Amino acid sequence: MKRYDINREYFIPFLLTMLMVGSAMLGHAQSKKSLPSIKQSSDVALIYHGGNHRIPYNTAQMKHYVYRDLHGKPEYLFDSFLFLEITTTLDGKQYDYGCEVPGRSIPGRTEWEWLLAETFAQGRGPDAVELTIDSLVKLGYPPPAKRRVYFALSNPIYGNKSWGKLNGKQLDMTQVEDRLNAAKWYVEQIEARWKQKKYKYLELAGFYWLHETIDVVNKDDILIKKVSNFLKTKQHDLIWIPYNWAEGADKWKEIGFTKAYQQPNYFFDLKSELWILQHAIDFAKKHELDLEMEFDDRVSEEGYRKHFYEYLDKFAQGGVWETKEVAYYEGGGAWYRMAISQDPEIKKMTKALGDIIVKRQLKLTNKKNK
Known about the structure:
This protein has 370 residues and is α/β, with parallel strands linked by helices. It has a single domain, classed as Alpha-Beta Barrel (TIM Barrel). The protein is built from 12 helices and 14 strands. Helix 5 packs parallel to helix 6 (220-232), helix 8 runs parallel beside helix 9 and helix 11 (334-340) crosses helix 12. InterPro entries: DUF4855.
């Protein structure tokens, strides 16, 4: 039998080329195959998006929330994204979309429409998540399921009589029905823009109530119940993230929320005592809330870095990582800046939290496949 010698100089490049072609073909096949949905979130990234003081959240920035690549193979991170905005400055005025704040203006329909346009700006925010996933799918690395997306509802702030007209009627935000109609309009505007985008890898999971406490004096509890009932007809969730000791947090189900995540509010003050974090965990367990992980750019400072790790440790000790959904507050772009940082301590923190999320995502995938 004649023996054929393989010329390695030509064979190895040929083999690598064939592997790349095969991977691309697999990715193409996956891109045509609809991804499954997941019924609940595991890790929800809060993306403060829209205001003119924010980073644009283009693909170069957003990709660090979608996946990480430590060993030459992408690992998916957050399975859900909450796009929200609280403040922005327009024509020299600072507007607050969450509640009435001294020194800030209350946004009306014009400012709501401006925020809608910014939220769905080409190539940014949700677009950037979609584009990032599409690039991974083409390389043969599809996510296990569609990524869930939530949008904040601009609050129809009580007392505002200059919001504008809807269907020819001037709305009066002292009236529950007018506030409800404004909220319905905003939901339908989101839905219309979402439909136009035709996302393949994202699903509209629901909406977020922006005000972090329940103002019963202004009948917010009545309004929220009505908004929740409206969203149920559309199979959308209504989620909430109350601050520690917020009014109504223990009655979140009764008020009408589908899901609530408790803020610990421990990270932000170096004088805070550890029992504050523990209280949030205990409260969440008692009243069946999920939890919020909190940090921002101050993790570069030793004291705040200590707080960061205390969240990781206390969540582990309390079984949060094993049993709870987690929303992640990072101050608006901190996770992106941490992901590209060359500081050894920052890289250590990013890997520590990233490892936790990747492990939780694997558990979510296994749960979905059962």
